[in-house]
Amino acid sequence: MSYNWTVIPRFLDILIEGILYTMQISAISLIMAIPIGILFGLMRVSKNKVVYGLSSIYVEIVRGVPLLVLLLWIYFGVGQVIKLGSYLSGALSLAIFSSAFIAEIVRTGIESVPKGQMEAARSSGMTYTQAMKLVILPQAIRTVLPPMASQFILLIKDSSLVSTISVVELTLTAKNVIATSFRPMEIWTFVALLYFTVTFTLSKIIKYFENKYKFGNM
Fold first, then answer.
1. Is 132 part of any domain?
2. CATH number of the domain within which 205 lies
């Protein structure tokens, strides 16, 4: 089999635009996922059994369902009822899926704070909410920031699945280019390189700030 790598420069602008769209939908999904994840993360450490139970059901169901199944369910189910369209359906699916993992990150961060901190805050006259807001969360955030940033990297890779509902990001762009150029090996190799370059660069940036500010050890 012969390869023709000259096909890459011909479609370089289109493929670069595709990775930019991938990062865009990933960023939008993360912005949507963070408040949902934080909410359910707080519910996961609640002493109220109903609140804890509801959050546990949400997290376990979302984490237990493959992203592709969730994506298709939202697109053909919820999306068709309220007319979300493919882009919003894709972003919402990624957000819901990521929020379950963010909830666990938040729960772990909160539980990493020594229990004596909460007891000391409550004994000083603070309510549970005040103690959580003023004492626990400021300490927990140092622990949760690095894995939260890493979740964005996972989101970029997971976003390739939205191509199944015709969201134009890098994977679907690559498929369209292959249909025109008939050079699948060259295009998929370059696409893999683009994904690797973006995720590797982001992981190094995250590692740099993690070491610089020593999150979790401050």
1. yes
2. 1.10.3720.10
3-state secondary structure the chain: CCCCCCHHHHHHHHHHHHHHHHHHHHHHHHHHHHHHHHHHHHHHCCCCHHHHHHHHHHHHHHHHCCHHHHHHHHHHHHHHHCCCHHHHHHHHHHHHHHHHHHHHHHHHHHHCCCHHHHHHHHHCCCCHHHHHHHHHHHHHHHHHHHHHHHHHHHHHHHHHHHHHHCCCCHHHHHHHHHHHHCCHHHHHHHHHHHHHHHHHHHHHHHHHHHHHHCCCCC
- What is the rounded radius of gyration, in angstroms, for the C-alpha atoms of the chain? 21
- pLDDT (tens digit per residue) in 4-49: 899 999 999 999 999 999 999 999 999 999 999 999 999 999 889 9
What range does the domain containing 106 cover? 7-213
pTM for the whole structure: 0.89
Q: Token digits for 152? A: 């964005």
